[in-house]
Design brief:
By secondary structure, this protein is of the alpha/beta class. It folds into 2 domains: 141 residues, Ribosomal protein L4/L1 (Ribosomal Protein L4, Chain: A); 51 residues, no CATH class. Helix 5 links the parallel strand 4 and strand 5. The protein is elongated. The two termini are 26 Å apart.
Length: 214
């Protein structure tokens, strides 16, 4: 597919070819669901904990004799039926993370990119840097590209510390490297800006034939 390339002034300067396998394939909704579910599960801390009846503090003697009082039999105050007693089937620390097959993750990423590229949500931008590192300079560029106040992802071809520095104070902007994408951020973003070199790198990085050779 052909995609327009915009300058930092927001003007169309040229078009570049993008790999149809990455930016124009059939969208797999199931793989997207599984990828986002996996990312959210891997972020869970899993530190919730409750005490069982064996862990609750307090005396363990029998509260009253078994028979003759007219009351229900009761062993200890740690019983779950008592206020302050143990918790039955409560949560305990655990690891919620799991691993997805590599091919499924790649299919999901290509589906999300194709979904965004199919509309006006994805724009390719000429490579740029913020030499001053100032947020206002970056915000000016984003406004020129028609982006302001809406959740936006900027995909970089390499780690640019000055761009990251300028983006730190923009709450609705996040940045990703082309080889370390996050499906959740991409899927739920209103706008996706891809630097020209990153767009070409994505076409190569998610190429099925090369992926099989690795």
């Amino acid at each position: 597919m052909e995609k327009k390339v915009y300058s930092v002034q927001g003007k169309e300067v040229k078009t570049i070819p993008l790999n149809d396998e990455v930016f124009a394939r059939e969208v797999s909704e199931g793989s997207i669901y599984n990828l986002i579910k996996n990312e959210l599960a891997n972020k869970r801390v899993g530190t919730a904990d409750t005490k069982t009846r064996s862990e609750v503090h307090g005396a363990h003697q029998k509260l009253w004799k078994q028979k003759g009082t007219g009351r229900a039999r009761m062993g200890t105050k740690q019983s779950p039926v008592w206020v302050g007693g143990g918790v039955v089937f409560g949560p305990h620390p655990r690891d919620y993370s799991y691993t997805l097959p590599r091919k499924l993750k790649q299919l999901a990423m290509k589906s999300i990119l194709s979904l965004k590229a199919g509309g006006e949500n994805l724009k390719v931008v000429e490579d740029f840097s913020i030499t001053s590192g100032k947020t206002k300079d970056l915000v000016t560029i984003l406004k020129n590209l028609g982006v302001s106040g809406e959740k936006t992802v900027l995909i970089l071809s390499k780690d640019d510390e000055m761009v990251k520095r300028a983006a730190r104070n923009v709450p609705w902007l996040s940045f990703l490297s082309y080889n370390r994408l996050r499906g959740h951020d991409l899927f739920y973003s209103k706008n996706v800006l891809v630097m020209e070199s990153a767009a070409l790198s994505l076409s190569d990085f998610y190429n099925s034939e090369k992926s099989e050779a690795k």
